[in-house]
Amino acid sequence: MSLEEKLRKASLGRREKASETDWDRRRSVWTEQVGILYRNVEKWLKRYVEKNYISIHFYDVTLREEHIGKYSMDVLELDLGEHSVLFRPVGTNIIGAYGRVDWYMAGRPDDKRMLILRENDETRGFEWELWNRQRRRSFTSDALEYTLEEWLAYY
User: Fold this and answer.
1) Cβ 118 vs Cβ 126: under 8 Å
2) Considering its fold, how many domains does the chain have in total?
3) Residue 5 domain-assigned?
4) Least confident of 50-59, 121-130, 142-151
């Protein structure tokens, strides 16, 4: 099979899969799961917010994705005084995942962590994984605090 035939076959498969996907539902689940992520972050950091060590803010960004179009999402910003940390949605059209949120210190996107939304085949639910270079693990309150400590020590 020639390269052209392989590319044509791959292109047809991609178009068939795209036509089978309920894109409105996918966007709805995606935005719902990002909201759950943000509520968890707020809950995990509540004791620091209550002591005025951290303040939490949100602002809108516009995303544009193939098959979904243009839509609005919130960016979560943690104000740590001298530093800010951003949770910025990238999108739901991610190969091998249901979506991705980049997490980084403001002004330092090169040192980002990726939060990958994965569908759990066993439970049919969703879970967030923290991806950092070659390592990945569940995104938990401990992982959040560890990364914030690491960044504050470094920057």
Assistant:
1) yes
2) 1
3) no
4) 121-130
